[in-house]
Amino acid sequence: MSSAVNSIALKSILHKEVHRFMRIWVQTLVPPAITISLYFVIFGSLIGSRIGEMGGFDYMSFIVPGLIMMAVITNSYSNVASSFFSAKWQHNVEEMLVAPVPNWVIVAGYVGGGMTRGILVGLIVTLISLFFTDIHIHNIWVILISVSLTSAIFALGGLINAIFARSFDDISIIPTFILTPLTYLGGVFYSISLLPEFWQGVSKANPIVYMVNAFRYGFLGITDINLTVAFSVLGVFIVALFAIAMTLITKGIGLRT
Amino acid sequence: MNNALEISNLEKVYKGGFTALKGINLSVKQGDFFALLGPNGAGKSTTIGIMTSLVNKTAGEVKVFDHSIDNELEQAKSYIGLVPQEFNFNQFESLTRILVNQAGYYGVDRKLAHQRAEKYLKKLDLWDKRDDAARMLSGGMKRRLMIARALMHEPKMLILDEPTAGVDIELRRSMWEFLKELNGQGITIILTTHYLEEAEMLCRNIAIIDQGKIVENTSMKALLSKLDVETFILDIDNGTDIKLSDICYRIIDEHTLEIDVKKSQSINAVFTQLTELGIEVRSMRNKSNRLEELFVSLVNNNVTGS
Fold first, then answer.
1. Rounded Cα–Cα distance for residues A252 and B10 (Å)
2. Which of B49, B54, B105 lies nearest to residue A9, judging by beta carbons?
3. Using CA atoms, how far apart are residues B143 and B129, in angstroms rounded to an integer?
4. Which listed residue, of A3, A98, A128, B108, carries a Cα 20 to 30 Å from B156's Cα?
């Protein structure tokens, strides 16, 4: 179909996705704001004041980028996972499958919706963090690129999870058992340079370390990971996950019989 | 004129080995009102699923307005409007949003989509509900919503899979009128239904599918002309002692008589004999729909023959 037709189809999916999470904003936007505020209060203000400096910054300033990124990751993932699985479960995904919508438009539409929610929650969390600390901006482009790439990676991950999921339980297993541990061990609360050399090496197998460090560099100008390496890793993940999502939808795994 | 639909040697074997379609061939002319009938599990929904890409075929070819679903799937899909058997819209969205989003998937811009949504919601008597969540609608309203949704991109071919299931007779009749109106505008309509009266009333051509095979594919007129015997139920006064010659009949009770009239016989002969016996006929009706009798006989023959 023509690019104009595809563009309207993409806008329609995006519109539907954004409207979905805005309609239930009490469930989608408020909880992450409250959760991250508690992190700010407990880890930043109460415990953080006793920790002292990390990477040359007070502990609150150090953890703010990581906590924003944590909110972006969780929300980008869960938005697409729950929305696409609901569409599968109610069969309204068939509305798109019977229409002349190319598969890449379906993937882009859902990922775009997940990114919009992830980044919107990130902005809300950033605004809340202003009540607790001043925000430094070292390089806005690094912030924008790293948050966009990270959000896209986890939105793609959520989509793949939803394609395979057969029940609502299946879309909570990955966040609980994989995403949360990786995020907590991904350098949100500490610099991996504090770890023994062996565990530093192990941490570098965790993709979230690259995301958090690139993002933190954008704010504070400090990182445990070379920026080029970090962006390369993110790029490879995006290409690989996009290819997997496209293959699954094209083959109709979990969608067509 | 090219056909709206061409199906050649279509086969479908599901995982687990169940063969749903055993090489069916079917063509539907442009502008036709076509009935695809068959018992449950015969392969109707699988055929529709393949045409609309919800089911992957095992072998064969499907062309929609000359566009093969193998290499021109998007063009082929753009011609089809589908009204599926199950409600498959987002139950939490408003009617207007469901329609406007659906139009968007076909490349209809939002301004035009809103105009069309108003047109079809009014036409299908849903305009007052336009801002309600779809889950609030009654069953009949949900069926009409699915018809409106299928029309949002103004398709050249409308496929309706059991569109009047669970719909009351008054509403069913108004839907028939609407479908006739759409067909009159040149839209090719393919209908599957369990109400054979519906198929007989609306459709010009018919295919009967059973156990994955087409057992009949002809015009409705030609099919109905194959009916050799029609069974009538007569409501009579006091008919316990009835003896009719050359007529196959059954006395159900003193007020009900069933007669089988062959095409070669005149029904007048029955009335003459009943009059001579002093029995009055109060009313008369078909025991079952004519198409239903043929359908049962064709499907039974297929079962016996297989």
1. 19
2. B105
3. 14
4. A3
**CA A230 to chain CA centroid, nearest Å:** 16
Q: Which element (helix H / strand E) includes A202?
A: helix A197-203
- Whether residue B49 is predicted with pLDDT greater than 80 in this model: the reply is yes
Task: Give the rounded distance of the alpha carbon of B17 from its chain centre.
Answer: 28
Q: Which of A229, A208, A236 is nearest to A66 (CA)?
A: A208
β-pairing, B213-219 vs A57-58, is unpaired
* Strand ranges across the sheet with B248-253: B248-253, B256-262, B229-236, B281-286
Helices assigned H by DSSP within B230-267: none
Q: Are B214 and B280 in contact (CB under 8 A)?
A: no
| Residue in A39, A172, A156 with CA at minimum distance from that of residue A106 | A156
Q: A77 near A175, Cβ under 8 Å?
A: yes
Residues of B in contact with A4 (CB under 8 A): 107
pTM of the model: 0.83
Q: For chain A, what percent of residues have pLDDT higher than 70?
A: 100
Tell me which chain A residue has its CA closest to the CA of residue B107.
A5
Distance (Å, whole) CA A89 – CA B129: 25
Is-contact A13 A113, C-beta < 8 A?
yes
Say if the Cβ atoms of B107 and A2 lie within 8 Å: yes
Q: Do B109 and A8 touch (CB under 8 A)?
A: yes
Nearest to A62 by CA among A149, A133, A151, A146: A133
**CB atoms inside a 10 Å sphere around CB B101:** 25
A23-to-A17, A71, A125, B89, B95 alpha-carbon distances in Å: 10, 20, 20, 17, 15
CA atoms of B183 and B193, how far apart (whole Å): 17
**Structure confidence at residue B253 (pLDDT):** 82
- Count A/B contacts: CB-CB distance under 8 Å: 88
Check pLDDT > 70 for residue A248.
yes
ipTM of the complex: 0.84
pLDDT digits (tens, 9 = 90+) for A210-234: 999 899 999 888 888 888 999 999 9
Q: Angle of helix A207-220 relative to helix A140-164, nearest 10 degrees?
A: 150
pLDDT at B302: 61
- Reduced to 3 states (helix: H, G, I; strand: E, B; else coil), residue A155 is helix
At which residue do the structure tokens 């993940």 appear?
Answer: A237
Distances (CA, A) of A131 to A45, A57, A69: 11, 17, 18
Residue A101 in 3-state DSSP? Answer: coil
The span from the CA of A256 to the CA of A84, in Å, is 14
Measured at the CA of A188, the angle between CA A201 and CA A70, to 5 degrees, comes to 120
Chain center to CA of B219: 14
Phi first, then psi: give them for residue B67, nearest 5 degrees: -105, 120
| Residue B210: both structure tokens together | 């059973």
Query: Are A95 and B107 an interchain contact pair (Cβ–Cβ within 8 Å)?
Result: no
